[in-house]
Write a structure and sequence with these properties.
The structure is a single chain. The protein is an alpha/beta fold and 269 residues long. It contains 13 helices and five strands. Strands 2-3-4-1-5 form a five-stranded parallel beta sheet, with helices on both faces. The chain is elongated.
Length: 269
């Protein structure tokens, strides 16, 4: 996994950042990744993470003194209403700040993990800004979210973002790729042809996701070719970002897939 290799290399070479934004539609995958990397940091064996040493086992059950996980359910015992139950409060963020100021029990690192980071209240996000920019000591902060667009831009700008993409049932088969060739062709046509394609497209939920995966694949292939020629690189990067944003919106909201494809094709012109 390229995200794992990136973080492992950064840590091993002493170039680890103090804050990471882990964004992706599959929350379980992102949480699993963060836990395994935390085990890697503290593992006592040469094969990291071994998952069997004392440190790895303590992290697995959530009982490691140098790691704390902040999530909205922590406030259940003190809630006044349902909204508060879904929110990560400023008091929880202040707890995380105090946690980072303490001397580590093991090694030199303190790690804070914020699950569903988009649930931080506005006050909590503003409170956390300084920690993201200048954390105390050897600190690593991981913000996990399936909805990165809901975070303040000042939060996202202070983190290195690692994106996780959907790895489930919506992969494009060779036969489906043949059917999507017309979609690749329509990218280079005029507005009328794009409207016509979107209107006639037979798009249900799964088919829409496969279409997005196909577009992402083809745009990345084009980007690799453009990098060799040093021509059109920025435009292709923007197009890939547009497809990824549409994918995130589809996973987190109800939408008209024909209309969404129509908007995307116009944006990719």
């Amino acid at each position: 996994m390229k995200q794992w290799d990136f973080l492992q290399n950064a840590f091993s070479s002493g170039r680890i950042a103090h804050a990471y934004l882990l964004s992706g539609p599959e929350e379980a995958e992102v949480k699993k990744f963060t836990k395994e990397f935390t085990q890697f940091v503290y593992c006592l064996e040469q094969k990291k993470p071994c998952r069997t040493c004392q440190n790895c086992r303590m992290i697995e059950v959530g009982n490691f003194p140098d790691v704390t996980v902040i999530k909205s359910s922590q406030s259940r015992s003190s809630i006044d209403n349902e909204k508060d139950m879904m929110e990560i409060s400023v008091d929880q963020i202040r707890y995380a700040q105090n946690f980072l100021s303490l001397t580590p029990y093991y090694g030199t690192w303190k790690i804070v993990i914020i699950e569903d980071a988009e649930r931080m209240s506005q006050e909590a996000q503003h409170c956390f800004l300084k920690n993201l920019e200048e954390p105390k000591g050897h600190a690593m902060i991981f913000l996990q979210t399936s909805k990165p667009d809901m975070l303040l831009p000042t939060i996202a700008s202070r983190c290195q973002e690692l994106r996780f993409f959907y790895q489930g049932d919506y992969q494009v088969s060779p036969d489906e790729e043949k059917n999507f060739r017309s979609l690749q062709h329509v990218l280079g046509t005029d507005i009328a042809e794009k409207f016509k394609y979107a209107k006639n497209a037979n798009l249900e939920r799964e088919q829409f996701y496969r279409a997005l995966n196909f577009l992402r694949k083809k745009l990345r292939q084009a980007l690799l070719a453009a990098l060799e020629k040093n021509d059109g690189v920025e435009k292709l990067k923007q197009d890939i970002t547009l497809v990824e944003q549409m994918h995130r919106q589809a996973l987190t909201s109800n939408m008209n897939y024909k209309l969404a494809l129509e908007v995307l094709l116009l944006d990719l012109s």
